[in-house]
Amino acid sequence: MTGTTRVIVGLSGSLSSLAALYHAVGEAARGQAVLVPVVAWTATNDRDGLRPLSELEHAARRRLDVAFEQAYGGYPSGLVVHPLVVNAEPGPALVGAVTGPEDLLVLGAATRRRLDRLRHGSVARHCRHRAGCRVVEVSPSALLTRLELPARTGAPLPLLAR
Asked: Cβ contacts of residue 18 below 8 Å, gap of 6+?
């Protein structure tokens, strides 16, 4: 992956999305690609319906910063990062970020309950059918596996390495 290739990653604040972020950063670094972390937000996700749109957008931007803070202690150096905060449902926001078949879309594997997926649909399914590029789903267990040995030995956590 070189040139204008992009690695797009969906961030929701879940452990799965942190695993996806870690995978996407590795892919972007190996392929010298642009990293595009995407956070989607909508007013319909506001539980009380009373927060102004600017506050909802600010919370989404904060979720983006927190994900990088948790995974790397901040934005990783040596990568071109073009964050994207979109007022849309997650599936359409992620598909909309794809610019061509050379892109890679990285998603955290779904962990929601079956009833929620039936009611709201699957973001991964939406992306696989509409993205027009390769889609990779990363399980949170991949992240936990990476952290297990350092946690047992007291070595630095690999997510904090820059």
From this structure: 67, 70, 71, 108, 140, 143, 159
- Distance of alpha carbon 116 from alpha carbon 133, whole angstroms: 26
Residues 6 or more apart whose CB falls under 8 angstroms from that of 98 comprise 6, 8, 105, 131, 132, 133
Whether 95 contacts 128, CB under 8 Å: no
Q: Is beta strand 104-108 parallel, antiparallel or unpaired with respect to 134-138? A: parallel
Concatenating the DSSP letter of every residue in 2-34 gives -TT-EEEEE--SSHHHHHHHHHHHHHHHHHTPE
pTM of this structure? 0.79
CA distances from 118 to 38, 77, 92, 98, 123 (A): 23, 40, 17, 25, 11
DSSP reduced 3-state for 106: strand
Q: Which residues contact 109 (CB under 8 A, 6 or more apart)?
A: 16, 19, 124, 137, 138, 139, 140
pLDDT digits (tens, 9 = 90+) for 105-162: 999 987 655 544 454 458 888 998 999 999 999 988 766 666 655 555 655 555 544 4
Minimal CA–CA distance to 146: which of 49, 25, 43? 25
d(CA 40, CA 60): 7
